[in-house]
């Protein structure tokens, strides 16, 4: 019997994967990264279509920028909707990697102090090398517990609100000051993307970034409606009153 003909879902891709004898760890990493970033890119496409269709005027804020992957997705998809000159793009990071915290996330050295570090210059170079401009990009350097409470919101944001907020900073301790900070940036229709909803802690929503989100949900006046799930760990919401 011809198995390809009898199993309509069987395709060349599946055949090539199961048939590959020398599949190694590096292949798995590339495979995961490729699929993960494809779903993130698809999310950014959908988010900017939502923003454009609903005329949500506001800026992009990313908390946790590292290799500038999602930040460039935001630059790309905003430009595809002719929004790149109508909004500003804020990148908040220590630019020195993760802070030191006591952890039980079971991610070992992946989340140690200093892990996931990209310098400001490297970050800017990634933007420029991809053909984007820095004109509407602003880098806010520092660990959030110190940098965010010290931001002069009137001066930096001039009363502009957020259209899309991306929280991708892995740790509960990092996310708490971020949620405190964004409360006044949110407007009706802001999309909130939590990259690490199910990262670490065996996906327990009462730990990590999802705990910080749930604490904020209980204290803010904003209501959250589920929007898209993103990759294996991410979630997003549309905010409303
Ligand atoms: C997973 S990476 C972000 C990945 C990025 N969005 C991308 O697509 O390439 C996490 C980032 O969060 C930053 N970070 C985590 N906790 C922080 C804190 N408390 N203050 C400042 N930056 C922090 C790290 O420096 C790191 O760049």
From TrEMBL:
Pfam families: TylF. It comes from the Bacteria. Coiled coil: none annotated. InterPro entries: SAM-dependent_MTases_sf, TylF_MeTrfase. This is Methyltransferase. The lineage of its organism: Bacteria, Bacillati, Cyanobacteriota, Cyanophyceae, Synechococcales.
């Amino acid at each position: 019997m011809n198995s390809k003909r009898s199993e309509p879902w069987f395709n060349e891709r599946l055949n090539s994967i199961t048939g590959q004898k020398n599949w190694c760890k590096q292949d798995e990493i590339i495979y995961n990264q490729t699929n993960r970033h494809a779903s993130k890119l698809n999310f950014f496409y959908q988010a900017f279509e939502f923003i454009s269709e609903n005329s949500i005027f506001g800026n992009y804020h990313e908390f946790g920028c590292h290799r500038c992957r999602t930040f460039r997705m935001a630059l790309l998809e905003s430009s595809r909707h002719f929004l790149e000159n109508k909004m500003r793009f804020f990148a908040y990071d220590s630019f020195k990697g993760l802070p030191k915290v006591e952890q039980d996330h079971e991610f070992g050295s992946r989340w140690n102090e200093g892990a996931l570090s990209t310098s400001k210059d490297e970050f800017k170079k990634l933007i420029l090398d991809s053909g984007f401009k820095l004109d509407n990009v602003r880098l806010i350097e520092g660990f959030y517990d110190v940098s965010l409470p010290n931001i002069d919101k009137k001066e930096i944001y001039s009363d502009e609100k957020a259209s899309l907020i991306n929280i991708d900073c892995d740790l509960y301790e990092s996310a708490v000051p971020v949620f405190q900070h964004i409360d006044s940036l949110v407007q009706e229709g802001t999309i909130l993307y939590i990259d690490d909803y199910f990262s670490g802690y065996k996906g327990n929503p009462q730990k990590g970034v999802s705990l910080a989100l749930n604490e904020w949900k209980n204290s803010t006046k904003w209501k959250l409606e589920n929007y898209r799930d993103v990759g294996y760990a991410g979630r997003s919401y549309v905010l409303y009153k």
